[in-house]
User: What shape does this take?
Amino acid sequence: MDLNLDEVEKICADLYLRALQLLPPDIKAGFSDLQRTETDATGQAILGTMVENIKVAERTRNILCQDTGIPIYNITIGRNVAFDGAGLKAAVRRGAARSTKENSLRSSVVHPITRKNDQTSCGIRVPVIHIDFDDREETVSIEMIPKGSGSENGSFLKMLLPSDGITAVKRFVVDRVIELGGRVCPPTIVGVGIGGTSDLCMHLAKIAATRPLRTVCEDAEGAKIEAELSRAVNELGIGPQGLGGRSTAFAVHVEVAATHITQNPVAVNIQCHSARRARATFTPGGIAFS
Amino acid sequence: MAHHVLEMPVDADQVRALKVGDTVTLQRTLFGIRDATQIHMFDRGRTTRLDLNGHAVIHTAPNVHRVEKSPAAPAGYTPFCIGTTTSMRMERFTRPLMEREGVRLIVGKGGMGPATLEAFRDLGGAYLAIVGGAAALETTWIEEIEDVDMDDLHPESLWKFRIRDFGPLLVGMDAHGGSLFDRVQADVAARRDAVLAGIGASE
Assistant: This one.
């Protein structure tokens, strides 16, 4: 299969708007789960407003949240796909800029030192583009994540010591959730990275924060910790928007990587309740959105 | 728990009548302000021709359509998606915003800290909590973009919105030292040790 870069550009533009407008089904189901278990009246009212907002966005064809985020594109390329790598990256970038212009999206991206906004949602090394490979035949998938910043500012890395053990890792996560309170727009997905190098650990936390609900960490030890922490953070009483209640997080997700004998790294990255993602899959038969 | 409908602008007495847990609906006018707007106003000495005295500001940077100026779009913009950002980043600007510009109410999400609470008590102000991330809904409460200043900071300009039935908003912090956010945080702090013990992570 030849990957057509004009199509990639167009799809990357479409995906940005689509992600901003339509919440994925697993997050909608997550809201229903929280509405069933929330006992606090304010918490229930806030969840109700969030669910109403999802419906208003669909009805008025508006975007869910004003924060258009930092655009992230995760590209996974299967076997027997011919593509021009440099051209692919350029096409993704053009798609993000085109969507911003054509859909009047707020450009939320500035130069980190001058704070200049080019009004394109692009800048140095932004959009963030991750390219990975898998063994699917003649298949390319592009996942778009507009990462909102109220929650992105809830990011932490700690190089704990091996002697601190896994208990310090768990304590670190709970304490960061407490520290962030309502600022990160709960209910959230708390993404946790355990292990790796410092940069890999932070990246694991992002993968965890943007993983669909009801998926489980592939590592059995990681899965055990994410189940424990998911229960624990919802016993804190932070609640929707930090105004009290059970619904602090849809879930805590953990991703792990092997680490060095001297290291015990833990990272936290938060995804707010507007947990937006959109995906397009290219095959010889055509392009499908999910 | 009273419900208040406030026709903006308001005076200090009207704001001091608000208590945490009350709800508020705003009418007529609301100003949009954000990090860069306030950095330029208070760190770099810029002034605005817009009169914020007695008004409410919302922590926002909107998505807007650029259009020809007309009676329906006097500033050359129409609303597309207007929502609320995390307030806490702008904590140090509450007092100058109130002292220099006469602002009475802050609409935001996530709550603010002790410096804001103190400014509210000294000067007569309150924080109205909106549901963050519910921007599509919030946009239906905004009728028009009446004016914009400091638009070189776009989208972090100073926006003047005409609003209708903006709310209900929850009084999260009042002029009497009350803060729902502090109350919840104290409850959470009291639960922390038991939660950690439950996952074998006590200190």
Notes: The radius of gyration of chain A is 19 Å.
